[in-house]
């Protein structure tokens, strides 16, 4: 496990105060914020990839073809 040292300004101190009001430590608040930022970044990348695929005519055609084939073999 590593150690991270950061400099804070007034805005970060206010945010830390808000995030630790429930008894969480500053370290816990920082860890949670970093993890949430990584999740948000990952979701943004996935949205961008999905949007790229949605706008790809070849991928749209392949999806429609597959949907039609699946409809043909549907049990009921």
Describe the structure in your own words.
The chain has 76 residues and is an all-alpha fold. The protein has one domain (10-72). The chain is 72% helix and 0% strand.
Q: Termini, distance in Å? A: 55 Å
Radius of gyration of CA atoms, rounded to a whole number: 23 Å
Work out the count of structural domains: 1
Helix count, per DSSP?
A: 3
Give a concise summary:
The protein is built from three helices and no strands. The protein is mainly alpha-helical and 76 residues long. It has one domain.
Furnish the topology, listing elements before pairings.
Layout: H1 10-19, H2 26-54, H3 57-72
Relevant terms:
72% helix; single chain; mainly alpha; 76 residues
């Amino acid at each position: 496990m590593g150690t991270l040292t950061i400099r804070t300004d007034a805005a970060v101190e206010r945010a830390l105060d808000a995030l630790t009001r429930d008894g969480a430590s500053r370290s816990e608040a920082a860890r949670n914020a970093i993890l949430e930022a990584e999740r948000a970044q990952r979701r943004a990348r996935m949205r961008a990839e999905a949007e790229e695929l949605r706008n790809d005519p070849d991928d749209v055609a392949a999806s429609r073809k597959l949907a039609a084939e699946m409809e043909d073999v549907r049990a009921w």
